[in-house]
Design brief:
The protein is globular, with a radius of gyration of 16 Å. It starts with 10 loop residues before the first strand and ends in an 8-residue tail after the last helix. The strands form 2 sheets. It has a 5-stranded parallel sheet with strand order 2-7-1-8-9, sandwiched between helices. Strands 4-3-6-5 form a 4-stranded mixed sheet. The protein has 196 residues and is an alpha/beta fold. The chain has helices at residues 22-32, 62-70, 90-98, 109-118, 132-141, 147-161, 176-188, and strands at 11-15, 37-38, 42-43, 58-59, 74-80, 84-89, 103-106, 123-128, 169-172. Helices cover 39% and strands 19% of the residues. It has one domain (11-188): 3-Layer(aba) Sandwich (Rossmann fold). The protein is built from 7 helices and 9 strands, in the order E-H-E-E-E-H-E-E-H-E-H-E-H-H-E-H. The longest helix is centred in the C-terminal third of the chain and has 15 residues, at 147-161.
């Protein structure tokens, strides 16, 4: 899809291990770069403290999620950590790209693999922690999961870190603002093509 000047519109898919800060980096982009459209995923999990429906996620029931999935309305969807389902609504992404605006999807590894099948022209960015110890500290420090859930997420994170080689670019999330600006440069600095 191209913008009004004939340049390809840019879809960037941001993924990485659990607790690496994908949501925080995406929130930074949303706040500081309103010219970039950031997709809001749907999920069947309950909101965490401070999360707002329609801002952080669209929180829906299992029944509603399944209805949308059966109608083919997700660009990607997955069961994450063996529990809740998450998905990216297809319609808003296609509309924004048709308008020629840069778009960012912040999703999990399974979702990124599905998007690659449907939109291989997208740029796939892996958000990595500075170290494994840093990732463990982030996950345990946020205090939003039970001990059992942290154990599951850390096991998942080890597998997810091994997938970095599947991505076009890796950004280390050592500082949110720096990682966010590096991500923005990938979204907007494509003067004539999306070739990588």
């Amino acid at each position: 899809m191209a913008d009004q000047r004939g340049r390809p519109s840019r879809l960037v898919v941001l993924a990485g291990p659990t607790a690496v800060g994908k949501g925080t980096v995406a929130a930074y982009v949303r706040q500081h770069h309103p010219e970039i459209w950031v997709s809001v995923s749907m999920t069947t999990r309950a909101p965490r403290p401070g999360e707002v429906d329609g801002v952080h996620y669209h929180f829906v029931s299992e029944t509603e999620f399944e209805r949308l999935r059966e109608r083919g309305e997700f660009l990607e969807w997955a069961v994450v950590h063996g529990r809740a389902r998450y998905g990216t609504p297809r319609g808003p992404v296609e509309r924004v790209l048709a308008e020629g605006r840069p778009a960012l999807l912040e999703i999990d590894l399974q979702g990124a693999r599905q998007v690659r099948q449907h939109m291989p022209e997208a740029l796939f960015v892996f958000l990595a922690p500075p170290s494994w110890e840093d990732l463990v500290e982030r996950l345990t420090g946020r205090g939003t999961e039970s001990e059992e859930e942290r154990t599951v997420r850390l096991a998942t994170a080890r597998t997810e870190l091994d997938a970095a080689s599947e991505f076009d670019v890796t950004i280390v999330n050592d500082r949110v603002a720096r990682a966010g600006e590096e991500l923005v440069s990938l979204l907007v600095d494509h003067r004539t093509s999306t070739d990588r």
